[in-house]
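pasting input
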Amino acid sequence: MALSGIGGRLYRGEKSFQFIAHRRRFYAFSGLLIIISAIALSTQGLKLGIEFKGGSAFTVTSNTGTIAMAQDALKSSGLSGSENIVQKIGSNKFRVQTGILSQSQNNTLQAALATNYNVQENNIDTQSIGPSWGKEITHKALYGLFGFLAVVMLYLALAFEPKMAISAIIAVIHDVFITVGIYALVGFDVTPATVIGFLTILGYSLYDTVVVFDKVRENTRSLTTTARFTFSDAANLAVNQTLVRSFNTSLTALMPVASILFVGAGLLGAGTLKDLSLALFIGLATGTYSSIFVATPILATLREREPAMQALAKRVAVKNSAAVASGRAVATPGASASSEVSERVETKIITERGPRNQPKRKSRRR
Amino acid sequence: MSANISKATKRPVRSGRTISILLLVILGFAITAIATSTTSVKLGLDLRGGTSVTLQPRVAAGGTVSSSAIDQAVSIIRQRVNSLGVAESEVTAEGSGNNRQIVISVPGETGRKVVDLVGQTAELRFRAVLAVGAPTAKTVASTKGALPTGVTPALDKAFGALDCTKAANLQGGSTDAADQPLVSCERHGSAKYILAPAEVLGKNIKSASASLDNTNAAGWYVLLNFDGDGTTKFGKMTSRLVSQPSPTNQAAIVLDGLVYSSPQINSAIVAGNAQITGNFTQADATNLANVLKYGALPLAFDRGEVQQVSPTLGSDQLHAGLLAGLIGLILVLLYSLLYYRGLGVVSVGSLVIAGAITYLSFLLLGKWIGFTLTLAGIAGAIVSIGITADSFIVYFERVRDEVREGRSLRTAVETGWQRARHTILVADFVSLIAAALLYFFAVGSVRGFAFTLGLTTFVDLFVVFFFTHPMVSLLAKVNFYASGRPLSGLSAKSLGVVTSTDSGKELS
């Protein structure tokens, strides 16, 4: 069981992915995503659903209908605004979206649609949102988002050291920004369900970060006394040790969400299920990414600036260069660990980036 | 060694008891559900079809909305909706403070009527009565064919066409323009009126209350107070009407286009105080006073959201939700069996038990607090599969870490639990914060999501403490797991454990 066995190797540091050492790459990647998001937001903006801006939506189910029938109904009801959108969803559903209508306009259009598609008025699914309601919803969504961020910051500041809280919050803001950017770029509809799904996933992503930081704290407790690892090494080990858990958790969270997305978008077309699961899906992806590639590296960057940690890094470097000079390789001689790992270790010595966790195996892996 | 044995024998007994208690609790819930004949989950309108209207109180800047006004509006709207005669229609207030909304849900296909009916925030009007007739009268013309003063032939024709015995004509909400004459029914259909343009409006009423006249034994009456403008207008109106012959000496109180009451004016009322007497019961008088005071509704409302779901779409959404849940559950179960092998049995058990508790909660909460399962609620429950899975993943990974540290499985199960418990509590706490915030900030159907998310997080905590952990403790006693068989999910190989008995060194 290769996947299963890797957990043990990651745990002991035999196999190690260089999340901290390569942090500049990840920062650059995130920076690029953020720039793209900013451009998308400023040029295209978000496509808000009728829940936010007010308006009406009608869904007609008809096997023989055409889009032209809906356009005809709009025309005959005297509604020719540029806000009108007619879509075909799935194989037999037609969705007409309009701006804000009065009750009588609503009724006229519904009747016209019923006539054109030859269906019962009662079988047309409608939704209409008043103008003030849209404002209310927008306010609530913003309150929800900022309220959530505030509570999260408070919680983190209480539960962790300040630098951990700062890193986690940067990661959360990173997630918000990139997800919003993706919505602007692709032009997905933003509905209240989107916002809710998104808030849910922020909690999830935060919790992922919490688990990694818990381990970081455990690993760095006695750093200065042993002087074997720098803070970055210990933090990197923590990320690696919790990697299997992060992977499994994200995967098991993703599977139900993906099945909602698949069923929601595939069978129902637009609607709560699709909006919710799409936001969860995107949020889950960015959240998992940020807790591994952004939160912990930022924490390491912040901590490595501390004089104590810089001194520690020097001591560790001296210790290891002495070890190299005396001919004792950092990696266990003759170790049959995968070539990938030993290569990494050698590269590291050459570039003198500073040592990292060494395997303390009593014997080889089978 | 003896200590070890006593420890080993003691723990499983406790674990077994915990699990038995859990199963008994579930059985208890199931029996309660069956005993109260609660056999199906209450479904929201988006899953079975129907219309929901959310009304939002219109609040002036800096103003507040009293919850009693909302409650009153709820009861008035409830009366209106009930007049449709649709079973299971519901009118409830949601939220708190100025954010309180009224949500009207009517199942089935009567959507349009509901929307038209509850949207009215019509104003109260006083109109002079021009003519009165029987509910089905054809004309108000005298036998000689003369029409009463102020009644045009067109009005008489409209009068004849209106049938006040038809329920459709007693729902109110007709076009009731204040400056136009009105042909209208008594609200119970007992009479038909032709009314002059309105002279005094509801906004001119300063206060209205129901009182009991003890001294004259005249029973309940309604006491009215007009504001300055209203006093002048009402004074003028009553001065004119008091000398008129019946029925034109009556002032009709018109609401929603229906005549609520048409008291006869006995004297000119110029002081701004009026008494309306009649054979009122206390309820009648209070009701009339409220109507006078508040007009149609105690507050002006904006129609926030109107949603109409056809039964076809409803059942489509229900099936899609259930299908998505099933697929998600199967995927997670398969993955945990593949990855955790024997331990996967515990994950399957945990998910099944969590599912059973969640389902029973849906059943019983539907019965007890009127919980309805909506599409968003189903989504919340599906997402929570991930949360439940996360809890046992955290625990299993911790146990495996402990085993990697060289601990025996039996010790690892306990020390791993100590650490995992903390993580799980923190995780579920974050989830609960999220659910609570969502519940209070969100509106409409999305609250259903927050509610189920919160509920299932509690269920998760319950299952982890009362099933997952005791079950793993029990299994640690079983040789299959304790000796780390390849399929147990705890084998040295799959964990990558390197022990002193490892033969790798000699073999190489």
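fyi The domain at 125-294 of chain B is CATH 3.30.1360 (Gyrase A; domain 2).
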